[in-house]
TrEMBL record:
Alphabetized UniProt keyword annotations: Metal-binding, Oxidoreductase, Zinc
Record CDD domains: CAD1 (cd05283)
Cofactor(s), by name: Zn(2+)
Protein name per the record: NAD(P)-dependent alcohol dehydrogenase
Entry superkingdom: Bacteria
Lineage, uppermost ranks: Bacteria, Pseudomonadati, Pseudomonadota, Alphaproteobacteria, Hyphomicrobiales
Record-stated family: Belongs to the zinc-containing alcohol dehydrogenase family.
Length: 359
């Protein structure tokens, strides 16, 4: 293979907390099992915002965020068998893993013993160069981490399935949610609204749990059966032991104690947001009901493909607002105020090559 590197452009945060701005960079040379795709849509995840601002303390710069990527194949390496030019494809939160450990072998690449390679802010396993994400015109990814977008799934709305979707679908599958399951969803943002739609799609009875009744109408429109006000002691009492699984999508530090007694015996509360330390939690409801508190990170590649097929079949799509690339800083500010229903998706047709590009 020639060592041809792919010149591209996007939007990057040059340093912690800086506004995103146009950025020219190169993608790695195409390896034999690589797919080059033109990005058509990119979802805007809370992680993008946290990463751009170094909220977790481990960001590298410059960073091109974006790990909800939908596009079209434009070139494939000679050993690529699964894709060809013109295919509609997608990439999520990871772009590589060791491929041989026990977790990778059972399709749980997100749990790779050597650590998976993040779509942005990770290190390429061969060249050690910084990976860059989907707020850009092109991306090069090995075929094992490229998903197929099924016929019939609206490309302009599918992108949030690649992070918000799989992050909530995976625990629903891990804990065998199906017809008759009683599922609670805490928080009704990007992740929460997908948890509601997907749990409904699997046939569960779904309850949104919220501190105030304000979101009741929205919850019902999304398909939930009801909204439980988590600050109302009587309502909590009436719902005790009423849930098999509670998915907690709240993106900041909060108190789990009101929710634990809501779980039935052997019920699980699963945390899917990266919230850091939690408030103190009582062990009593855990012991008395053999209840569990668990965590769950995204999902494997095979399960992500399963999710895309499931959504195409059931006609489940994220609710999104389409923006232009140059509206990203404003979108970040609106996300901080929770002023989005429920995900921003960047239309990459709005991304033009910077005028001062030297190439
Ligand atoms: Zn994400
Ligand atoms: Zn592995």
């Amino acid at each position: 293979m020639a060592s041809f590197r792919y010149k591209t452009f996007g939007y990057a945060a040059p340093s912690a907390g800086a506004r995103l701005k146009p950025f020219c960079f190169e993608r790695r040379a195409l390896r034999p099992n690589d797919v080059t795709m033109e990005i058509l849509y990119a979802g805007v995840c809370h992680s993008d915002l946290h990463w751009a601002r170094n909220d977790w303390g481990w960001s590298n710069y410059p960073v091109v965020p974006g790990h909800e990527i939908v596009g079209r194949v434009i070139e494939v390496g000679p050993k690529v068998t699964r894709f060809r030019a013109g295919d509609h494809v997608a990439v999520g939160c990871m772009v590589d893993s060791c491929q041989h450990c026990d977790q990778c072998r059972r399709g749980e690449e997100q749990l790779c013993r050597e650590g998976n390679t993040m779509t942005y802010g990770g290190l390429d396993r061969i060249t050690q160069e910084l990976t860059q994400g989907g707020y850009s015109k092109h991306v090069v990814v090995r075929q094992e981490f490229v998903l197929r977008v099924p016929e019939g799934l609206d490309l302009s709305r599918a992108a949030p399935l690649l992070c918000a979707g799989i992050t909530t679908y995976s625990p629903l599958r891990t804990w065998n949610v199906g017809p008759g399951s009683r599922v609670g969803v805490i928080g009704l943002g990007g992740l929460g609204h997908m948890a509601v739609k997907l749990a409904c799609g699997l046939g569960a009875q779904v309850t949104v749990m919220s501190r105030t009744p304000d979101k009741r109408a929205d919850a019902l429109v999304l398909g939930a059966d009801r909204l439980l006000v988590s600050t109302d002691p009587d309502a909590l009492m009436q719902s005790a032991n009423g849930f098999d699984l509670i998915i907690d999508t709240v993106p900041n530090k909060h108190d789990l104690n009101p929710y634990l007694p809501l779980l039935d015996v052997d019920g699980t509360l699963v945390i899917v947001g990266q919230v850091g330390p939690l408030d103190e939690m009582s062990s009593v409801p855990l012991l008395l009901g053999r209840r569990r508190v668990a965590g769950s990170p995204i999902g494997g590649i095979a399960q992500t493909q399963e999710l895309l097929e499931f959504c195409a079949r059931k006609n489940i799509l994220p609710e999104s607002e389409t923006i232009r690339m140059d509206q990203i800083n404003e979108a970040f500010e609106r996300m901080e105020r929770s002023d989005v229903r429920y995900r921003f998706v960047i239309d990459m047709a709005s991304l033009t090559e910077p005028a001062d590009a030297t190439s």
